[in-house]
Design a protein that fits this description.
The complex is a heterodimer. Chain A is an alpha+beta fold. Helix content of chain A is 31%, strand content 28%. Chain A contains 4 helices and 5 strands, in the order βαββαββαα. Chain A has helices at 17-35, 57-68, 101-108, 119-128, and strands at residues 2-11, 39-45, 48-56, 73-84, 92-98. Chain B is α/β, with parallel strands linked by helices. Chain B has 9 helices and 7 strands, in the order E-H-E-H-E-E-E-H-E-H-E-H-H-H-H-H. Chain B has a 5-stranded parallel beta sheet, with helices on both faces. A two-stranded antiparallel sheet of chain B has the order 4-5. The chains are: A alpha+beta, B alpha/beta. The A-B interface holds A 16, 19-20, 23, 26-27, 30-31, 96, 98-103, 105, 124, 127-128, 130, 138 and B 95-96, 98-99, 102, 106-111, 118, 121-122, 125-126, 128-129, 151, 153, 176-177, 179-180, 183-184, 187.
Chain lengths: 160, 218
């Protein structure tokens, strides 16, 4: 069974460091994810990371543990952690890194002032990452033919 | 919220391409009020013909105009996007268009209707991009390595390419993987706004970047 995991976090790097450090991170992640058969995408905009990862449960859990501990980001927040039967991404890539305020706004909407982000917003960001939406069809973000719980599987879905 | 106080000579240029005159006029009025110097174009052809003679500034480009797709203009590199960072504007805010526009090199993406703070923030960010990448070096007509906005690693890679080194050899020499070399190369091409290694090398030569010295193969 495949597992999908998505989180957002704040980048702790600043200034000129960001680009070089991100290069290093992406080069490393590309090799590691390929080895683990993990697919997905990473994005950085307005100082915010978002990443979607999918692969075997073991691979995802190990990967997420090491990502959580990475000092290059903080304020880690789980957006999705669930079992799934198909992949949304063909490979792993850096989908975007830059200054577009559009992307920054979309990522900020993953952290509403109150409550949890909407599925519609999560879907928008998955599509922005270049993937196939998690719930329903792109034309109908909210409608779900197969309802999936945000916190199924009994693992740590720390959705505050 | 909005700070309109900008001295006249510090006014920043911004170009608005939209076939809807009402929209164009209202955006230009808003931008003038907050200290920008907007110039409107009713169609992209007019802008493309004039771009050589225009000062650098962000470009607000409507993606859906009669007979033209704004994203396509980016994809075929019709716009000098280092000089005119493109903010794609659309009334149909679909994510796929945003992804396509950003992939094609758009600096930003705005959905109509947008708020004044949204457009101002996007313009500020796009404008700082010009100053960072191009404005600094282009005024004296002579580019130099520091004006190319390359990191020291990217400069090394470019020097290696100029020396005609293979990725594998260059990677070994710099102690990084060939994959990383390729990644840096992609960034270099993007930063220099060129498509091929040969074009990048030409820029390097013009900028006075010396090729890496070849090592004797042991």
């Amino acid at each position: 069974m495949l597992r999908s995991f998505m989180y957002c976090s704040d980048c702790t790097l600043s200034g000129d460091l960001v680009e070089e450090e991100l290069d290093r991170l992406v080069a490393h992640a590309r090799v590691k994810n390929e080895r683990l058969h993990v697919t997905g995408a990473l994005m950085l905009a307005s100082g915010q990371f978002v990443q979607f990862l999918e692969g075997s449960s073991d691979a995802i859990h190990a990967l997420v543990d090491s990502i959580r501990a990475d000092p290059r980001h903080t304020n880690f927040r789980t957006l999705l952690d669930l079992e799934t039967d198909s992949r949304r991404f063909a490979g792993w890539s850096l989908a975007y890194s830059g200054t577009a305020t559009f992307v920054g706004r979309e990522l900020r909407r993953l952290r509403p002032a109150t409550g949890e982000p909407s599925r519609r917003q999560i879907n928008r960001v998955i599509r922005l990452l270049g993937g196939i939406p998690m719930y329903g069809s792109p034309a109908n973000d909210v409608g779900t033919s197969r309802r999936v719980s945000l916190s199924c599987g009994g693992t740590s879905a720390d959705l505050r | 919220m909005i700070e309109p106080v900008v001295a006249a000579d510090l006014k920043r240029r911004v170009y608005v391409i939209d076939d809807d005159q009402g929209f164009r006029d209202s955006v230009c009025a808003l931008l003038t009020a907050v200290g920008w110097l907007p110039e409107g174009f009713g169609d992209a052809k007019l802008f493309l013909d004039a771009q050589e003679h225009l000062g650098p500034g962000p470009l607000l480009l409507d993606v859906r105009m009669p007979g033209l797709n704004g994203v396509r203009l980016l994809e075929v590199n019709a716009i000098r996007s280092q000089k005119f960072p493109v903010i794609v504007v659309t009334g149909h805010g679909d994510i796929e268009t945003a992804v396509r526009a950003l992939k094609a090199g758009a600096a930003d993406f705005l959905e109509k209707p947008f708020t004044a703070p949204d457009i101002i923030q996007a313009l500020e960010v796009a404008h700082s991009r010009i100053s960072a990448a191009l404005d600094r070096g282009s005024t004296n007509g002579q580019s130099s390595p520091s004006h190319l906005a390359l990191t020291s690693r990217e400069t090394e890679i470019l020097q290696g390419l100029a020396a005609g080194l293979q990725y594998k050899v260059l990677a070994h020499r710099l102690g990084i993987s060939p994959r990383t070399v390729e990644m840096h190369r992609d960034k270099i091409l993007k930063k220099l706004n060129v498509r091929t290694n040969a074009q990048a090398i030409r820029v390097a030569v013009l900028a006075g970047i010396d090729p890496l010295e070849k090592e004797s193969d042991g």
